[in-house]
Amino acid sequence: MSQNNHVYPVIWNENRVLLIDQNRLPNEYAYVEISCYEDMAEAIRTMIVRGAPAIGVAAAYGMYLGAREILSENRQQFLTQLEQVAQQLRRTRPTAVNLFWAIARMLQTAYETMGTVDELKKVLLETAITINSEDLQTCQAIGARGLEVLPTNPTQLRILTHCNAGALATAGYGTALGVVRSAWQAGRLVRVYADETRPRLQGAKLTAWECVQEGIPVTVITDSMAAHCMNRGMIDAVVVGADRIAANGDTANKIGTYSLALVAQWHKIPFFVAAPLSTIDLQLTSGSEIPIEERHPSEIYQIGDTILSPPGVEFYNPAFDVTPAELISAIITEYGAVPPSQLKQLLSKQYLSRELA
Ligand code: MRU
Q: Quick one: which H or E segment has residue 130?
């Protein structure tokens, strides 16, 4: 943690990257040092660093670390080897599009930068640092834009969230938890309900930890309690993050998000997705095209050293599900919150204003 008590999961520090080891939280707050791109790929795969935007930032640094390891002074050979680094980083996790977005941006920078290989490497580091700092600003903007769409009645909200879309999952501040933070700072939040988020428990471990750091009242519930809490009138809004949003607004997020959205609709509780534009994948027309990561079954059958199920059982462990756009009240981005049906207009407006600037 930095001196100002903020959480930054990915830090560039004296020629190497420091990652908060998210597998050791909340019991231990420790950094892992990453000095080569293979270690960065492994850290993403094993979820030392996780959460879509944070994975993107980590991959950007991974690209620089890979570039730094390339010995050739020949531009063409350098670019060929950089493509191989990119390929290895891409193989780590399939669903969060921010990973692919950040790698593509780093590659594009390399192709567009003229000069010696040493100059290229310098520009790549600068680009990774820019991706990192832009994500932090983006999250703060998402937090502010979220406040504009949260219900005003009641004045003191109880917000349910799923998994961890907080500072730990981004460059800092968070997307869904960024909205929660803004609401807390504005005096509009009374409590966060955090789904524990089986099987990896990012809610119970990471979201709860972040709320405690910030002094935000938090209640952890098991995933299966969400419908009951809504039915009892305990929840005013649901805010979650996203790993990939298709052009029609269908949204992939941590497994369990879809059922939460269904239950929220039944109870007429607004359901918000908070995510940066870098999470939107316009190449995919709908959520059915989003690749869903499947992780090792031990995440389901094993807790610590304890095996939960008898031999002979089969397991299915998808890490994400897709929430249909119709169940989403609004997607909160850094440029404003819109219903999924208006996502494309928001993007083209944003694109046009960039072109005209
Ligand atoms: O498997 P994880 O922990 O990387 O999944 C994280 C999520 O599903 C988050 O909700 C999502 O990445 C958004 S993070 C701002």
A: helix 117-149
DSSP letter string, 324-335: -GGG-SEEEETT
C-alpha dihedral, 302 to 306 to 310 to 316, nearest 10°: -10
CATH superfamily ID and name for 10-138? translation initiation factor eif-2b, domain 1 (1.20.120.420)
Report whether 78 contacts 61 (CB < 8 A): no
Q: Is the minimum distance from the CB of 242 to ligand 1 under 6 angstroms?
A: yes
Alpha-carbon gap, residue 313 to 298, rounded angstroms: 12
In the residue annotation, 250 being an active-site residue is answered as no
Range(s) of the chain covered by CATH 1.20.120.420: 10-138
pLDDT, tens digit, 9 for 90 and up, residues 233-272? 999 999 999 999 999 999 999 999 999 999 999 999 999 9
Query: 312 by DSSP, 3-state: which?
Result: coil
**pLDDT given at position 350:** 73
User: pLDDT tens, 160-172?
Assistant: 999 999 999 999 9
Coil/strand/helix, residue 180: helix
Above 80 in pLDDT, residue 2? Answer: no
pTM for the predicted model, two decimal places: 0.96
- Using the mean position of ligand 1's atoms as its centre, give its distance from the Cα of residue 51 in Å: 4
| Nearest-angstrom CA–CA distance, 222 and 28 | 23
Asked whether the beta carbons of 180 and 147 are under 8 A apart, the reply is: no
Per-residue model confidence as pLDDT tens digits over 61-70: 999 999 999 9
Instruction: Report DSSP state, residue 294.
Output: B
Ligand 1 geometric centre to CA of 255 (Å): 10
136, 160, 243, best to mutate for ligand 1 pocket (most atoms within 8 Å of CB): 243
Q: Say which CATH topology domain 151-356 has.
A: Rossmann fold (3.40.50)
